[in-house]
Amino acid sequence: xxxxxxxxxxxxxxxxxxxxxxxxxxxxxxxxxxxxxxxxxxxxxxxxxxxxxxxxxxxxxxxxxxxxxxxxxxxxxxxxxxxxxxxxxxxxxxxxxxxxxxxxxxxxxxxxx
Length: 113
Ligand SMILES: [Mg+2]
Prior knowledge:
It is a single chain. By secondary structure, this protein is an all-alpha fold. The chain has two domains: about 1-80; about 80-113, no CATH class. It is built from five helices and no strands. The protein is globular, with a radius of gyration of 17 Å. The structure holds magnesium ion.
């Protein structure tokens, strides 16, 4: 599954009208949802790094998926695809970090093949 395929799945099943009366409410739901679920990922990381727990990979997968769900709500609100977001991030990182050599266009194209 690709991110865009995931977004198609989200778009098919997600009725934004069920997640708030206004886009402001939907944005708030998405933002708070990302923060809430990212907090759950952070909790797993903390317990693994500092409390002697073994990372529960299945739980981590589910929590990271929850982050993705809320992230997708925000992406949908602003008519963004997840591929578009990843590509923008490649450009940003290549511009910021000299260790990431290469033309961002080439990097994006190579990964798309
Ligand atoms: Mg969760």
